[in-house]
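I have been asked to look over a protein record a colleague put together. Thanks in advance; the entry in question is below.
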Amino acid sequence: MGRRSRADNGALSERDSRLVWRIAALLIDYPGAATLAMLPDLRTAAGAIPPPAGAALVSFVDYARSSGETELAAHYVETFDLRKRNCLHLTYYAYGDTRKRGMALLRFKHAYRNANVELGEHELPDHLAVVLEFAATVDPVTGRRLLADHRPVLELIRMSLADSGSPYRAVLDAVCATLPEMGAADRRKIAALAAEGPPEEAVGLEPFALDPSSQPEFGGRR
């Protein structure tokens, strides 16, 4: 067979983009035993994706394979659970834990429900791994739009990971390589979010978690 087609503007094809999102969803989630067992296959799949996305994923998989399970898990917790700057919930940067964030979560919730997808009982719909899995396996058009609309947040996380020297930066590099180039509005949003930081107003967000009764169901995220 011939080469897989790519978009006219040089971007990754939809097939390659969905593969990037599927691999990235697994790698950006907590590194459990099941995912670690998949690393050789994930490296093979990533190696077939054109650069720069494929090369970025390969580099992270190589790091993960060279790390012990305990070391990798500890780095994940230190990187994402203990540092607010690296929060993987895409609405957190703009809204923090405020009531306005609850309304922002509804957009994700409605997108999933329109595609007949429900999340686990205690899972918020804006976690990056959830959005990537949705884009890869359910609705690539809506999933890409959600990712693109939150591109400033993805860039902030990527910059924070770069500042700390985290290998997870490569996973964000791969995801951003599937999205359109940023415009002036995106860059202004990045500057504003970086300057202001997430607002603080602790409220419960439980009403915005989704009903676990429907299929397909995504796994729980930390």
User: Anything to note?
Assistant: The domain at 14-208 is CATH 1.10.3480 (TorD-like).
